[in-house]
Each structure stands twice: as C-alpha cells, then as structure tokens.
Amino acid sequence: MWNVTLWMLVVCASACTAGSILVPPYQCRMWRVDTEELRRRRHMVAVLKKNTRPLEGDPAAEEPSPDAHLVG
Q1: Which contiguous run of DSSP H or E holds residue 38?
Q2: CA distance linking residue 36 with residue 42, whole number of Å
Q3: Mind listing the pLDDT tens digit of every residue in the chain (72 residues)?
Q4: 25 HSE (CA, 13 A, CB side)
Q5: Numbers of helices and strands, H then E, in the chain
Q6: Phi, psi dihedral angles at 26 (to 5 degrees)
Q7: 45 contact partners, CB below 8 Å, separation of at least 6
Q8: Among residues 48, 50, 35, 43, which one has the least CA distance to residue 72?
C-alpha cells in the first residue's frame, strides 16, 4: 500500500512541477495590451511635463501628480 502512495506522491509532484514550468502564469504578469497602454501613458505624461509649465500661485501645481509614480 505504501508503494502506491509513494508513486502517487511522485506523479503528483512531477505533474505540478511540469505544470508550473510549462503553463504561463497569466495572473501575475501584465498582458501585452496593458504594457503598451502603460508605455503610452508614461510617454504622454513625459511629453506634457516637457511642454507645459505650471501656473504660478496654482495650488494644484505644487502638489505631486497622482500619476507621479508611473513616470520612471
């Protein structure tokens, strides 16, 4: 009986190892469309920062942008 249990353990461990190597984990990485959208947004923020200047005395200009963490 312990032989069957040992073989089942070996088979299940091998299947889990092969599955984790061969099957891509879509839950923990971004899709191609998401990465392109993030790249476009970062580029847009960089262009806007380069081509605009804040109004003097504007309190919104003194606060950091909510997307400041996106620009790297």
Answers
A1: helix 32-51
A2: 10
A3: 778 999 999 999 998 888 777 776 665 566 777 788 888 999 999 998 888 876 676 555 555 666 666 655
A4: 7
A5: 3, 0
A6: -70, -20
A7: 65, 67, 70, 71
A8: 43
